[in-house]
Amino acid sequence: MTGVEEKSLMARPPELSDPSVTSVRVLYSDLHGIARGKDVPIGEFDHIAGHGLAFCAAIMGTDLRHTPVVGPEIGYPDLRAVPDLSTLTPVPWEPGLLACLADLHPVTPESAPPADPRGALKRAIAGYEELGLTPVVGPELEFFLCVRDPDGGLRRYVDNLSMVYTVGPQADPKGVVRELAEALSRLGMGAFAANHEFMNSQYEINLRHAPALEAADNAFRLKAAVKDVAAIHGLVATFMGKPFNDQGGSGFHLHLSAERDGENAFDGVSDELRRFSAGILAHAPALTAFLNPTINAYKRLVPDSLAPTHANWGWDNRTTFIRIPAERGAATRVEVRVGDGSANPYLAIAATLFAGLRGINDRLVLPDPIEGDAYTQEQDNPLPASLTEALDALEADTYLRDAVGAPIVDTFLAMKRFEAERHRQWVSDWERDEYLHHL
After folding, report:
1. Mind listing the pLDDT tens digit for each residue in 82-108?
2. Which residue, 359, 259, 372, 245, is CA-closest to 302?
3. Alpha carbon distance 128, 53 (integer Å)
4. Where are the beta strands (DSSP E) in 208-319?
5. Which among 363, 162, 330, 340 has a CA at the least distance from the CA of 258?
6. What is the pLDDT of residue 303?
7. Which domains does the chain have, with CATH numbers?
8. Which residues of 127-160 are buried (b: 16+ CB within 10 A; e: fewer)?
9. What angle do CA 100, 38, 412 make, to 5 degrees?
10. Is residue 362's pLDDT more than 60?
């Protein structure tokens, strides 16, 4: 038995001794933000708790059509997913199951490090800790619920106009969203409210702000929980940014601040808040690749969508990239509004924090705010208009590449460029509807 395994067993959490527990689900995030993992029978868990579970590292470079884009050229090596026992929690919708998150490691000290989104966020947090700061994040995620028809098509779970902020059976006939919010609250994830959102069959479960790693863990688990519970109810949940042409999109807004000695270091719209915001704006084009990581996401970044189109900021202005809400004191914060529901919480938060850290360290100057409707004003600094443009910006941003880490950024770029090229070659329904009859 190794020292790591001995330490793990000595610190065995009491949840593992509950006689009702039959399995532990060990989960980690791939680069898409999808939960990957293995279910381990409870009698076997002690054997893997210290050393971890082996996975083919190519999973981190596999696209959503099941193609290993990165991995074949290096012989499909392994990575290790080592359970973080501090994250053990029951799964109320699957009796007898515990779940925990894992950190990713190379299989030997000589092996290449794997692309590890949670590890990147830990490094970003460490950069703030060197300055005596603790980054705090409030994730805000929207999603759609759909019903799958017998022919394989999808229709909206509730398809009535003007249901925003409606609660109860009219907005959620099966009580799915209420069930989720109550379960996540019992698990201590800070789910404090739920409602139908503005678009037809769009919902939001609000999560309390928390230290950055905890907030990212909560957002990651929320996305997985929503999809699992929807499936149990025979529904399909999607965080895809804009799944319907006649509806707006789902965002992933980040509310960010930093504490020093238990106090909000951003209070009073401090120099740190301004420099933090300036860093985010300086890296906005590259950040867009992580915050809007799909072809579809750029159909949401259009005028009059409440999503930004330029790298700008404003006072309590929902048409800008950064909104600084009116609250002060402990609630002083920066809201980054560009994020798409499809974004990986770990990569989105890590990259944003790295950009803000550079602003603080280099004392970057925040430009003048936008007043009024940002969509109607002449501005510099347009955001990338496509995934390809965002990937180009990320590849050119040497600071962000080095900060997030080459194993992640290089794999992400290769996988996403492959995705963009597949899209470029695909004949769509729109093209057939537009051209086939007439041309």
Report:
1. 999 999 999 999 999 999 999 999 998
2. 245
3. 31
4. 210-211, 235-238, 252-260, 263-264, 313-315
5. 330
6. 94
7. 10-114 (3.10.20.70), 122-429 (3.30.590.10)
8. bbeeeebbbbbbbbbbbbbbbeeeeeeeebbbee
9. 85
10. yes
Strand partners for 26: 38, 100
Pairing status of strand 134-148 against strand 235-238 = antiparallel
Strands (E), 200-241: 202-207, 210-211, 235-238
For 283, the 3-state DSSP assignment is coil
DSSP structural state of residue 163? -
- Look up residue 343 and give its two tokens: 């974004």
Distance CA 397, CA 12 (A): 43
Closest CA to 197 of 156, 233, 136: 156
**CA separation for the pair 384, 171 (Å, rounded):** 35
Write the CB contacts of 209 (distance below 8 Å, at least 6 apart in sequence).
136, 137, 138, 190, 215, 255, 257, 333
Instruction: Kindly report the pTM of this predicted structure.
Output: 0.95
Neighbours of 262 (CB within 10 A): 7
